[in-house]
From TrEMBL:
Protein name: Glial cells missing transcription factor 2
Domain GCM: from-to ranges: 20-175
Species the sequence originates in: Cyprinodon variegatus
GO molecular function: DNA-binding transcription activator activity, RNA polymerase II-specific; RNA polymerase II cis-regulatory region sequence-specific DNA binding
Gene Ontology biological process terms, A to Z: gliogenesis
Keyword line: Developmental protein, DNA-binding, Nucleus, Transcription, Transcription regulation
rRNA-binding recorded as keyword: no
Biased composition annotated in UniProt, kind: Basic and acidic residues: 158-173
Family annotation (Pfam families): GCM (PF03615)
Segments of this protein annotated with the region Disordered: 158-187, 287-318
DNA sequence: CCATGCGGGGGTA
DNA sequence: TACCCCCGCATGG
């Protein structure tokens, strides 16, 4: 790599994964990686990240979104699809103005059970708002392990609010256990019973820590490019700097049909992604974050926010495209499907979204891989956990140069998302029911 | 209990 | 053949 390229890379405020051109299905993934991306908890959009194989969160295939394992019949690539978010079917507003946004249980049975419960606030039924962010199908995340790296690729743009994060859910769960075992019955107990661990967010934010220190719950005032690209970031000993782009992003409403800037749970840092093309409205954030949110910072190393540096990471509303009513969940969700603004975004013809759908295949990649790379050791078992790399034999290192080809990766790379103005005005027609404007997630503070 | 993974298998285009 | 989803099983916290 030339010096110029190195510099370029250093200056480029872009994730490592997105800088390289690759697709999760490629026979050969980039090799000799020198940098890794810090773990991203809330990925959204058609993004790619490359984590260190030592990154525990990556090893666990973690995601803030409730993702469930999906069988793609390919042991090399783990595929997970988004379950959406559980909300009050009535869309009631909690005392603090927030709304209920529970994390769908991953386990099918647990989820069914969960949905039978009532909204602790208005006693209405709870409803699962499915994700249809990927051409009508749930957003999918793909994980693939290569000896020294864990490749992550996401396809689709979540068209629903964020559920509480896994850590929050767990924190509450444990919290519930503690309480349930002591006090007999209190008004609050009712809520607990109603939602199980889901609504007991009584723990102070501090308690809700992520598996790794990498998850800044408190955002430091600044982050240098160095820290961002520091491989150690992904190793668990991350410096206390802002480095979780997606994670720090407030799920801002999308222009035209946003959730009116619904935020994630109160425990999340108040940061916004003003550079998010989808963020039509802007939020005033703390000076700290504001600094990394100014338009000019989109190219500044100060912010590691993927949302601010990578257009592909934050595709414009157009991405919500194809959420045609004919989609899988088309009718069931009268409420959401017909009124939920994000369900009906406009999608300019030939939008990246449309193109992207072209590269979403993963199933049975083995066969593909075999075709493309005879040397591939198909016999390899379980690529993910270990270092089963199917690339062991790939003596030649993968070119890290952008290859503009007809390959999936090439397509991605060549894509340039339409500037947000394009759809800043879509469908927020009058009829829009703001029931689903999520100013916040629920918060339980009637203690 | 429930999160996760795995893999068989059905349905559809 | 590609891709989606469901289901049961096993494991582990």
């Amino acid at each position: 790599m030339s010096r110029a390229e190195q510099r370029d890379e250093a200056d480029c405020v872009c994730s490592v994964g997105m800088k390289l051109t690759w697709d999760i299905n490629d026979p050969k993934l980039p090799q000799d990686l020198k940098q890794f991306d810090p773990f991203q908890e809330w990925t959204d959009g058609y993004v790619r990240y490359i984590y260190s194989a030592d990154d525990k969160n990556a090893q666990r295939h973690l995601s803030g979104w409730a993702m469930r394992n999906t069988n793609n019949h390919n042991c090399q690539i783990l595929k997970k699809s988004c379950l959406g978010v559980v909300v009050c079917s009535r869309g009631c507003t909690l005392a603090d103005g927030s709304r209920l946004q529970l994390r769908p249980a991953i386990c099918d049975k647990a989820r069914q059970k969960q949905q039978k419960k009532m909204c602790p606030n208005c006693n209405a039924a709870l409803e699962l708002l499915p994700c249809r962010g990927h051409s009508g199908y749930p957003v999918t995340n793909f994980w693939r392990v290569d000896c020294k790296a864990i490749f992550f690729q996401a396809k689709g743009v979540h068209d629903h609010p964020r559920p509480e994060s896994k850590s929050e859910t767990e924190a509450r769960r444990s919290s519930v256990k503690r309480r349930v075992s002591s006090p007999p019955f209190t008004p609050k107990r009712r809520l607990i019973d109603a939602l199980g661990p889901a609504l007991l967010c009584v723990e102070p934010p501090e308690r809700i820590s992520f598996i790794e220190p990498n998850f800044p719950q408190h955002y430091p005032p600044f982050q240098s490019t160095e820290s961002y690209y520091n491989p150690h970031n992904a190793l668990g000993e991350a410096p206390p700097t802002l480095q979780k782009p997606a994670n720090t992003r407030l799920y801002m409403g999308r222009p035209g049909y946003e959730f009116q800037g619904y935020l994630t749970s109160p425990t999340y840092p108040v940061t916004s992604d003003l550079c998010d093309p989808r963020s039509g409205s802007q939020i005033q954030v703390t000076p700290v974050l504001a600094s990394s949110s100014t338009p000019s910072s989109s190219s500044a190393p100060l912010s590691s926010s993927s949302s601010s540096f990578d257009p592909q990471t934050k595709p414009p509303p157009a991405w919500k495209e194809l959420l045609k009513s004919s989609a899988p969940y088309g009718d069931n969700h009268h409420y959401y499907s017909t009124e939920y603004p994000c369900r009906y975004p406009s999608n300019p013809p030939g939008s990246p979204a449309a193109l992207q759908t072209i590269i979403t295949t993963t199933t049975k990649v083995n066969s593909v891989l075999r075709f493309r790379q005879p040397l591939l050791s198909v016999g390899e078992k379980k690529g993910l956990p270990g270092c089963s790399s199917l690339l062991d034999d790939a003596s030649s290192s993968y070119s890290t140069e952008v290859k503009v080809t007809d390959e999936p990766g090439g397509v991605i790379k060549s894509l340039s998302f339409p500037p947000e103005p394009l759809q800043t005005k879509t469908e927020r027609t009058d009829g829009y029911d703001y029931h689903y404007a999520y100013p916040n997630t629920y918060r339980y503070d009637d203690y």
